[in-house]
Amino acid sequence: MSRETGNLPDISELAFGPEFLFGAATSAYQIEGCVDQSTYGRGCSIWDTYLKDRPHLDSGEVAIDHYRRMESDVALMKALGLQSYRFSVAWPRVLPKGFGAINTKGLDFYDRLVDKLLENDIIPNLTLYHWDLPQVLEDKGGWASRDTAYYFADYAAVVANRLGDRVPFWATLNEPEVIVAGYIGKSLAPGVGDYSLRMKVIHHLMLAHGFALQTLRDSLPKDAQQGIVANLVPIDPLTPKAETVAQNRWMRDYAVYLEAILKGAYPEVVEKEISKSGVEIAPGDMAIISGHIDFLGVNWYLRMVVNERDRVVDVPDVPRTLMGWEIRAEAFTRTLLAIHEEYRLPPVYITENGAALQDTIVGGEIEDKGRRKYFGDHLRAVSDAVKQGVDVRGYYAWSLFDNLEWSLGYQKTFGIVHVDRKTMERTPKLSAKWYASLIAQHRERL
Ligand code: FCB
Fold it and tell me: Are 123 and 182 in contact, with CB atoms under 8 Å apart?
């Protein structure tokens, strides 16, 4: 083993069977661009509005121009040897108003993308909602309104009817916790900033997921896999006295979704909040929400530490990414084990994992050794969970490309492929090359 790669795992060290899928992930708004309605037929989304209203922030109008560069982007995926590609469909590109008339150009785009992927032996893994709600629906109350859940199921049917024959993996929502953050806080779209909406938004998201599961089940071939993607951030107590606070926070902010989906009930810690919120939980809702899922998508980025007063504390002297997120692969393993023990998980896919880190250019090479090490350490962490019984079946690096990191713009780069902001040229970084070689080793064992 050379000194340089000494701390990177070899495929033989990782407990992944031959069926395990290695891929990379993106989301529509972060990469597509081409948002203009008159040219592309796409309706306005809450992210267009949010960023337009804040001109000091970077815009998603061009993003990385993936909409127009899709074919060469898929060729790049092929060159890296990706086995699967996780992407999202932009609801307003398919249904500009969120319901009613279909934008044929938009649906055709995803149709071509899926065909291109399949032509290149890349398995499509589709997410229906990665945060870009049609603005028309937001104007009707957005996720604070129960109607949005019904509209979502109708949208799911439109996409499933067109792509269902070719896409084997379907996720309803990406990270409900962060969607909620857009209503209780102001730093993500729609940026409402009203904490009292929390339980309404949570329940409507959960219902949207449940309704969509039913719709998908009716429209998709029997062997299609359906699930949801949750971001999990374990909360560790700063001191033993903060233990209950930490547990409650985990339950309230993260496990609340797992409880609803996998146990069919909201946890006790949100009971008061539910009754104060005025949310309607109709008879039968919880059964819909806890409909069978074939897989759970897990997005992993960080752990948090809280003190006795429920304040997040930055532990000093620990490695962090440019997002300020603590790098701690060990917490990944233990979180997977803990949720597996608590919820007896269905098969798991790591649908996102990655880091925003400084890239350095050395002699034309984009040297992101830190990111490469991050992937190595986190793949080992997943492998440790597999060894201890968690059925993890795939891993998607976040992200395939440098892209729009929402309100934080283009500076926080997560890509394994660098994108030049002026020329839009794509250049695989060191991490991509290493990942490609790992996947090549994996394929050799097939
Ligand atoms: C996740 C999001 C993804 C990206 C990463 C860094 O929460 O799903 O779109 O922003 O964080």
Answer: no
Closest CA to 354 of 419, 418, 287, 399: 399
* CA–CA separation, 229 and 175 (whole Å): 6
Mutate-to-test residue for ligand 1 from 177, 178, 353, highest number of ligand atoms within 8 A of CB: 178
The answer to whether 162 and 216 are in contact (CB under 8 A) is: no
Whether the Cβ atoms of residue 50 and residue 190 lie closer than 8 Å to each other: yes
Closest atom, ligand 1, to C-alpha of 27: 9
352: left (phi over 0), alpha (psi -120 to 50) or beta: beta
Question: Distance between CA 403 and CA 411 in Å, rounded?
Answer: 9
- At position 156, the amino acid (one-letter code) is A
* pTM of structure: 0.98
| Cα separation, 364 vs 30, whole angstroms | 26
Residue 407 pairs in a beta bridge with none
Q: What confidence tier does 3 reach under pLDDT thresholds 50, 70, 90?
A: very low
- Distance of alpha carbon 175 from alpha carbon 179, whole angstroms: 7
Tens of pLDDT, residue by residue over 372-402, are 999 999 999 999 999 999 999 999 999 999 9
Tokens 């629906």 — which residue? 137
Residue 414 near ligand 1, beta carbon < 6 Å: yes
Which residue CA neighbors atom 4 of ligand 1 most closely? 405
Report whether residue 405 contacts ligand 1, using a CB cutoff of 6 Å.
yes
Q: Which residues participate in catalysis according to the annotation?
A: 175, 352
Q: Say if domain 20-444 classifies as CATH 3.40.50.10190.
A: no
Domain ranges of the chain: 20-444
A 10 A CB-CB count for 105 gives 15
